[in-house]
Amino acid sequence: MRYRTLIVPATAVVCLGLRCPQALGESPAEVFARGQSQIASGKLQQGLKSLAAAVAAEPGNEAYQTRFELVRKACSLQQQLNSEEDAARWTHIARALHIFYHREKLYEDAVQLDREIHKRLQTAVSANLLAQTLMAMGRNWEAAVTLQVIPGEQRDLGSSAMLATALARAGKREQAAEIAEQISIPEQLCPGKAFMLARMRAAMGDEAAAADLLRLAFSVTPATRLPALKSAAQQCPDLGALLKKKPYQDILATVSTAAVQADHDHDDAAGHCANCPSQPQVADLPDKQACEGGCDGCEADGCQQKPQG
Q1: DSSP code of 185?
Q2: Is 286 helix (H, G, I), strand (E, B) or coil?
Q3: pLDDT (tens digit, 9 = 90+) per residue, 43-98?
Q4: Which of 8, 188, 271, 307 is spaced 20 to 30 Å from 23 by Cα?
Q5: CA 94, 96, 99, 105 torsion: positive or negative?
């Protein structure tokens, strides 16, 4: 997989040779909005140019600068991925891009990247990453097939819950129930795993169990992370539908009882956490290790952090 990328140093945006937005009859806000639209359609290079022009026109706007830096970092990671020869470092960079693509909902880019990751690694982690993206795209049967290849002894709670959810969404509820029955649930659940199990139960039609697990997920989530997780639940097809039903509307009023927030207190090895709000930001990523996530509330659906799907 090859990317051609424009990298724009933040300190040099005024030297890009870009025409001033005002000279084109556009306000900085209009140029910024155009950049956002370009990014949303997967045109990162064009979006980066537009963001750079917005920053140059309004250098004191911190929101513009922050957004520019994030996209610049993602473009830099794309370029690094093209040239990286070390397998471990390549995987590290690819995982960082996986996080970025999910947070931006660039699933076509994500699935292409994840297929390459899985082709290279052929591990349970790479299968989780690919399935996570396929589920976010609504391609649940493909996700289930991907996860079913993982030997049973290599499946953890996260991948098993994902598999059951994918099967249920694909209309295979009996198979989903078989997988769900095999899941060993620990006495204490981190927010992400509670969220994943809640989503699984909701997909299987077990609304009461889903509601209890979702309340648990919310209650043990640190207060600073709770809005993101509640938003993830509302966006999730299974949990969103549950929360619209009158008996369960009060779940969103659940408050956090978590005393202290850990930096990243969930299991950290299985590759389920692309969009988890607790994950490192892409802007931090080539200096920190890419997310090794173990809680799926993230396919954009939750890990005491953020989910989607």
Answers
A1: P
A2: coil
A3: 999 999 999 999 999 999 999 999 999 999 999 999 999 899 999 999 999 999 99
A4: 8
A5: negative
- Tokens 């795209």 locate to 137
pLDDT of residue 187: 86
CA R_g for the chain: 20
Q: Give CA–CA dist 292/294, Å, rounded.
A: 7
DSSP H or E stretch at residue 55:
helix 44-57
Average pLDDT along the chain: 82
| Distance, CA of 88 to CA of 298 (rounded, Å) | 23
Instruction: For residue 231, give the 3-state DSSP assignment.
Output: helix
Integer Cα distance of 158 and 276 in angstroms: 13
Give residue 163's Cα distance to chain centre: 17
What distance in Å separates the CA atoms of residue 191 and residue 186, rounded to the nearest whole number?
A: 13
User: Residues in the chain with pLDDT < 50?
Assistant: 3-17, 23, 261-269, 274-308
How far is the C-alpha of 273 from the C-alpha of 292, rounded, in Å?
7
Fold annotation for 86-284 = 1.25.40
DSSP, collapsed to helix, strand or coil, labels residue 38 as: helix
The most distant pair of C-alpha atoms in the chain lies apart, rounded to whole Å, by 64
Helix, strand or coil, per DSSP, at residue 290:
coil
What is the location of CATH 1.25.40.10 in the chain? 86-284
In this structure, are residues 185 and 157 in contact, taking their beta carbons and an 8 Å threshold?
Answer: yes
Looking at residue 302, what is its pLDDT? 34
C-alpha to C-alpha distance for 304 and 291, rounded to whole angstroms? 14
- For 254-269, the pLDDT digits (tens) are 999 987 544 444 444 4
Whole-number pLDDT of residue 25: 73
Q: What is the DSSP letter of 186?
A: P
What confidence score (pLDDT) does residue 274 get? 46
- Three-class SS of residue 284? helix
